[in-house]
């Protein structure tokens, strides 16, 4: 799993207990996962279809630096399935896991569209393809 994005937990991200608000974390995850799906599928016409059970394992506190990890686990015909882990950047203690986040590639009418991708590609491979 690659941990691309880091966040610094600030006062506006906290819940009434003074720990990281789950809603803030889920918003960051949805955006991170969407960016990952867009890059892998090569189109920004894709939507979140499904999120599996979310397991909040440990809380994060103000001042903590956390990192968001995403990995593609399955390429379907029109969909891509991702797994996510959020952990403390310093201690590597797990904060949250999501087993499955599914994005679907759509056409101009909002209907599922084949994306033609079968495996993870990395930026340097994509740049080589464009040469
Ligand atoms: C980035 C964002 O915030 S987007 C905003 C939030 N998301 C949305 O508004 C999306 C709203 N939903 C929709 O518009 C529609 O449900 C669509 C277009 C995504 C999918 O339409 P459907 O008629 O359900 O599509 P369909 O049944 O053909 O399935 C499409 C793909 O999704 C997969 N899929 C459908 N339902 C599920 C599910 N519950 N769990 C996992 N995968 C699913 C299918 O297996 C299929 O994948 P494949 O082609 O790779 O085999």
TrEMBL record:
Q: Where is the HotDog ACOT-type domain?
A: 1-109
The signal peptide stretch is none
Instruction: Output the Pfam families linked to this UniProt entry.
Output: 4HBT (PF03061)
Keywords for the protein's UniProt record, in alphabetical order: Hydrolase
Give Gene Ontology CC terms.
cytosol
In terms of superkingdom, the source organism counts as Bacteria
Q: Which InterPro entries match?
A: Cytosol_ACT (IPR040170), HOTDOG_ACOT (IPR033120), HotDog_dom_sf (IPR029069), Thioestr_dom (IPR006683)
Q: Give a GO molecular function annotation for the protein.
A: long-chain fatty acyl-CoA hydrolase activity
Query: Its GO biological process terms?
Result: acyl-CoA metabolic process; fatty acid catabolic process
What's the protein name? Acyl-CoA hydrolase
Species for this entry = Mucilaginibacter mallensis
């Amino acid at each position: 799993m690659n941990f691309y994005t880091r966040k610094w937990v600030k006062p506006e991200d906290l819940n009434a207990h003074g720990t990281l608000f789950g809603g803030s974390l889920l918003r960051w995850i949805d955006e991170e996962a969407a960016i990952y799906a867009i890059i892998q599928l090569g189109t920004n016409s894709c939507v979140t279809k499904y999120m599996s059970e979310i397991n909040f394992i440990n809380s994060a506190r103000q001042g903590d630096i956390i990192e968001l990890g995403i990995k593609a686990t399955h390429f379907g015909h029109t969909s891509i399935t991702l797994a996510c882990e959020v952990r403390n950047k310093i201690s590597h203690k797990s904060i949250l896991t999501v087993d499955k986040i599914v994005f679907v590639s759509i056409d101009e009418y909002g209907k599922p569209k084949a994306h033609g991708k079968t495996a993870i590609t990395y930026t340097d491979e994509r740049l080589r393809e464009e040469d």
